[in-house]
Amino acid sequence: MAKLLKTIPICAAVLGLSACIPFSEAPKSSRSNSAFSSPDARLCLSNLERAKISFAALPDTQYGGGCQAVNSVRLIDFGTPTSNLGPMTCNLASGFTGWARDVVRPAARKYLGSDLARIETSGTYSCRRVSGSGNLSQHASANAVDVFAFVTKDGRRVTVLNGWNGDSRESKFLRQIHADACGRFGTVLGPQYNQQHRNHFHLDMSPSRLNGNSYCR
Predict the structure, then answer these.
(1) How deeply is 217 buried, as exposed, middle or buried, from its count of CB atoms within 10 A (0-12, 13-18, 19+)?
(2) Could you tell me if residue 19 is inside a domain?
(3) Structural domain harbouring 54
(4) Where does the chain cross the membrane (predicted)?
(5) Is residue 16 one of the residues assigned to a domain?
(6) How many domains does the chain have?
(7) Which residues are CB-contacts of 64 (< 8 A; sequence separation ≥ 6)?
(8) Residue 136 lies inside a defined structural domain of this protein
(9) Residue 205's pLDDT band (boundaries 50, 70, 90)?
């Protein structure tokens, strides 16, 4: 089995990021991590390797209050610089990198006339609850990412806030990648869902995805 731990620091490997989340603990090899003892977890890591994704397998971490990062990785390089990515479950990392590669990049060329240079997010793991609910958010399990904007190589910055109902090319681009995300993630929320999501896409690998269903709004 190929060595899973990559040694290139994330902030050096991914140029052009608007921010990086530091980690005080050096990543460990998955071979010493109980999170990768299950067949599903090992298969996910193998799939990332086959897709030539550069990543570091992270040790399981319990933060208290039900918040945790289990079966998680840190993405280092998958061909598209992306800001603020912290720990992500392996399944989320697989879904996100596939979406960026197979959906967002082609859509940027088709609708915006330029290659994708960067994706801007507000992060992944965050120990918080769903607004108006006592339930923990998928962010509390490092199983969600919020995407706010996309930057093309010709300098165009497309935000969910301004582009969803704005310039026709930007609107078509955003609506296409939102629709295509629905087949890749368990939950996809955007401006049509509520005011709290008017400025970003929430993408997560909630359990509904395991049943072949997704909640898309």
Answers:
(1) middle
(2) no
(3) 27-216
(4) none
(5) no
(6) 1
(7) none
(8) yes
(9) very high
| pLDDT for 102 | 97
pLDDT score of 15: 31
Q: Looking at the domain assignment, is residue 4 inside a domain?
A: no
Cα separation, 5 vs 2, in Å, equals: 9
Mean pLDDT of 59-80: 93
pLDDT at 23: 29
